[in-house]
Amino acid sequence: MKTLVEFVWEQQENVKYATGEFSRLLNDIGIAAKIVNRDVNRAGLAGILGFEGSVNVQGENQKKLDVLANNEFIKALRSGKQCAAIISEENDDVVIFDDETTRNAKYIVALDPLDGSSNIEVNVPIGTIFAIYKRKSVGTTVTREDVLQAGTELVCGGYIIYGSSTMLVYTTGNGVNGFTYDPTCGLFVLSHENIKIGDVGGIYSINEANYIYFPEGVKKYIKYCQEDDPETNRPYTTRYIGSLVSDFHRNLLRGGIYIYPGTLKNPQGKLRLMYECVPMAFLAEQAGGKASDGFSRILDIQPEDIHQRCPLFIGSKAMVEKVEELMAAHSSDFRK
Ligand code: AHM
Ligand code: MG
Q1: Are residues 147 and 125 in the same domain?
Q2: Calpha distance 12→18 (Å, rounded)
Q3: pLDDT at position 140, please?
């Protein structure tokens, strides 16, 4: 039995000049995850379901658990002192820890504290998504360059899924590993070592209700998924939970593709680049899959804004390449 803490330390020992700061940071995320897991599990009893009465920067009504999860992660990262600033879906601006110790911290964390929160009330799996960047400047106040880094600079990407069991899955660029939470001893234990996604899967996940607003390439791909072709195991099956973490996690383990495209109404799609698309893209690539905005690699996109949105096509490599081929052939890129 190997715990998350042991695994992280072991991995870091292989890194020359490792100081233990990154290990501590990841362990702080693990601690916050346990607290949020507890809150999610007893939400119906603890009076923490429903809306907070506030609206976030994206214009979405914040749920009580959105706010609670955000506070728990910020608290854990602040007291852990390895993180200089946080970008969160729930905070309009960058949260900068400008005190004596954390001013010199090396890392920036981008966070979707509670992804899929529309599913909270109905016991459907929800999650937390995190991305860890190394600062460009140290010893000064956090700069714009520290915060707005492309996915290629990512040090770590991961998520926690609060599902039928709770799992933490992460990568530091050396494969993807998953840890299942054992509530009897309060530990994340290595259960899914070196996760790989199949080159082609049998699942496509997309909110088809928006079909009429989709680009032509996506419409063609949906039809392709539905065609009868025994040789390529089509028609595929459709599965859509409406919680990126859950849809991505299932497709990662089973093989498949998740798509949230740009639409006529929302040319940039819905998902946020820095704390939804990028960490998931890093995980997908590390598992042997692919992540694209329909035309190019997610990790290459240079962010201009912390809450920037981006279309997402992610999962099994050959499936993402097929839809990219159709997007190029029927170019209706609504972003232009
Ligand atoms: P959230 O971070 O506010 O929960 O929104 C992101 C979620 C994703 O988890 C999910 O895949 C998507 O929004 C669902 O959107 P839709 O209801 O438009 O299909
Ligand atoms: Mg989200």
Answers
A1: yes
A2: 6
A3: 79
Ligand 2 mean position, distance from CA 19 (Å): 32
For residues 59 and 158, membership in a common domain is answered with yes
Q: Residue 255's domain spans which residues?
A: 203-330
Cα 336 to ligand 2 centroid, rounded to whole Å = 25
- Look up tokens 């419409």; give the residue: 219
- Ligand 1: distance of its center to the CA of 140 in Å? 36
Question: What separation in Å is there between the alpha carbon of 213 and the centre of ligand 2?
Answer: 21
**Pairing verdict, β 126-134 and 237-238:** unpaired
- Closest-CA residue, ligand 1 atom 16, reads 242
Q: Is residue 116 within 8 Å of 124, Cβ to Cβ? A: yes
Which ligand places an atom closest to the C-alpha of 119?
1
Are both 127 and 223 inside the same structural domain?
A: no
pLDDT bracket for residue 60 (50, 70, 90): confident
What total of structural domains would you count in the chain?
2
Residue 135 has pLDDT above 70, yes or no: yes
- Paired with 109 in beta bridges are 86, 132
With H, G, I as helix, E, B as strand and everything else as coil, classify residue 126. Answer: strand
The Cα–Cα gap between 161 and 243 comes to: 10
Q: What is the pLDDT of residue 203?
A: 98
- CATH number for the domain including 48? 3.30.540.10
CATH label of the domain that carries residue 313: 3.40.190.80
| 99 within domain boundaries | yes
Does residue 100 fall inside a structural domain?
yes
Q: What pTM did the predictor assign? A: 0.94
Residue whose Cα lies nearest atom 17 of ligand 1: it is 242
| Backbone dihedral angles phi then psi of residue 184, each to the nearest 5 degrees | -70, -30
Give me the amino acid identity at 211: Y
Residue 242 CB–ligand 1 contact under 6 Å: yes
- Specify whether 101 is located in the same domain as 137: yes
Q: What is the mean pLDDT of the chain?
A: 91
